[in-house]
TrEMBL record:
This is LysR family transcriptional regulator. It comes from Gemmobacter lanyuensis. PANTHER family: HTH-TYPE TRANSCRIPTIONAL REGULATOR (PTHR30126), TRANSCRIPTIONAL REGULATORY PROTEIN (PTHR30126:SF77). Residues 2-59 form the HTH lysR-type domain. Keywords: DNA-binding, Transcription, Transcription regulation. Pfam families: HTH_1, LysR_substrate. Belongs to the LysR transcriptional regulatory family.
Amino acid sequence: MISLRALEIYYWTAKLSSFSRAAEKLNTTQPTVSQRILALEEHFGRQLMNRASKPVSLTRDGQRMFAHVELILQQIAKLNQDFDQPGHIGSVRLGVSETIVHTWLGSFLEASHQRFPQVDFEISVDVTPELQRGLSEGELDIAFMLGPASVDGLACHHLQDSPMQFYAAPDLIPGNHFKSEHIGHFPILTYPRHAYPHSQVRELLQRRGGQQPRIFPNSSLSTMERMAVDRIGVALVAQGAFQLSLEQGKLVALKSDLPIPVLPFYSFYLTGLGDGVLSDLTTIAQTVAQQLG
């Protein structure tokens, strides 16, 4: 007798091309994954996976098997949906950019809990390249990060375009108006070199300032906020990221005529079994981001 759990394990092992990644996603052990797939192979009398290849690949019989398994699991998901049954959702491994943590993540989690009270979130905060790697390697189910990008096996949906804003300690910049003439006088505290806006910001500041700008890149918004409060430089980050320091009067939002690029945030998630929930979570994120972002 073939169990649905065995089919689910086979599906995700094939989808992620890894026994260990499938085990992590399904909250089980690698030996259990291996045993379930071996049992399927013994049941059908066919080798389904090439274990010697790295990453794991499907045999021709395994590819035929995958097509059937995918249809079966999709039909079960549709059955649960038609009868208003949530099915087994468990936890969702969510990756987020730190900017979103400081702006609308809390509201998203609250709205998601109302829609899916049975879902628990495992949250990872990181820069976009690491979040994309986590998705591609099956360590994350969904991520809210900078985009867009076309990655095989990942859905990509726009969430919001977040304007960037100059922030500084009160009276650091005359009239709280950041102009081209200030570029060479103050270090610019902004996102790390491998993040999307860094090269655009550097090019803009160099062109407008007429000299190589002093940029202090940092991957931590909290660190940049502390440095700006301590008058080390002028921060250039997503609008709304330093709301508490603004309310406390430790920082001010600067006016500026410089054409600063926006930060385009997108939702990325693994396509396939269970992506209906991830699609619904993306819709919730779009609503919250547009209301609060």
